[in-house]
Design a protein that fits this description.
Structural class: alpha+beta
Strand content: 25-35%
Number of strands: 23
CATH architecture of the largest domain: 3-Layer(aba) Sandwich
CATH superfamily of the largest domain: P-loop containing nucleotide triphosphate hydrolases
Distance between the termini: 45 Å
Largest sheet: 8 strands, antiparallel
Length: about 425
Amino acid sequence: MSDKNSGYLNMELLRFTTAGSVDDGKSTLIGRLLYDSKAIFEDQMEAIEKASERIGGEEVNLALLTDGLRAEREQGITIDVAYRYFATPKRKFIIADTPGHIQYTRNMVTGASTANVAIILVDARHGVLEQTLRHTYIASQLQIPHVIFCVNKMDLVEYGQETFEKIKADIDGFSSKLSVKDIRYVPISALNGDNVVDRSEAMDWYDGPTLLHLLENIHISSDINHDDFRFPVQYVVRPQTAEFPDYRGYGGRIASGAVKVGDPITVLPSGFTSKVKTIDFFEDSLEVAFAPQSVTITLDDEIDISRGDMLVKSDDLPRTTQDLELMVCWFNERNLVPKGKYVIRHTSAEARCMVTGVQHKMNINTLEQDTEDLTVQMNDIAKINIRVTKPLNVDSYYKNRITGSVILVEEGTNETVAAGMIV
């Protein structure tokens, strides 16, 4: 492999999601990021130029780079989560462009669930809206470590500093009640490119970084839980070849923490213990591995281990329980059924479960708990209790975003009905 390709593969990956109200310019912002950072191919540019002409636009509509569905282009809105990939010399990026409509809140949750950064757009003309509150609350609940508020369409308010400062103060007022670790503010015009990739000459009063500079330099390596080793087993590796006749390894992705050869290991749920014999990464053997690497681990002892089991350090065990308290975002058009039975998926484990109670729903606008109306409908966020048919090895979502998250699936249709965070 060339040094150039090796460098690309080893570049740090940052996942970010965009959110905001309808017509705040999320798709245009991503189009501008891709365009100004030279991440668009010529054929892509030609395609959106033609699409812009078809819908009667005088200028090239950069939003069409992410609005991939025909219905999205015709209506000029984002419906589904659109993923886009690009890289700069400093980092690789995965973008999740999510819808702004209230009825697509579930899509926002899907796109934001793995993000390091949430970019929340605010229209400078309208200021903080209900969807701003909703998306900030969801970012807080999902424990997205970094939130960047982009005050967009500054060109339509004559690039006024007073407008930017007022919106910043309004956001500070309600975000102080939430658990967001790192909040940044950038005044931009996605349409004209001000402060997106290049600095704006029209806003010389702003001395902070551009959006791309922030994304390239924001510190994310400490966002992963490096303390608690969690290794959900995805696959048992048994090549049974002449070269490796007795090889038995356990493949998967390290969810958190680190492990080294010789570490004492406990296998859950059986409770059997052993030590790490080798850590294999393709054709290499490692002395140490850490999240989020995908590796194959072998142990000193032969233990019956299968997909859904978890390897952890013997002195740092997760909670093993059949009773879970979850904050869920309900995805399905059919309401949550009290005493309803669903399939629960947690890391690589799967079991059946029953909803034993609904504690409250969240009123996003007031950040208050509603204990009167306990009917959980699509896009509602609620705290519920469930009972699982077999013990799961879990952490609190606030401690570990991977081992603290689950999805609920309707058994008959195989539809994902909810995403849940373990409280």
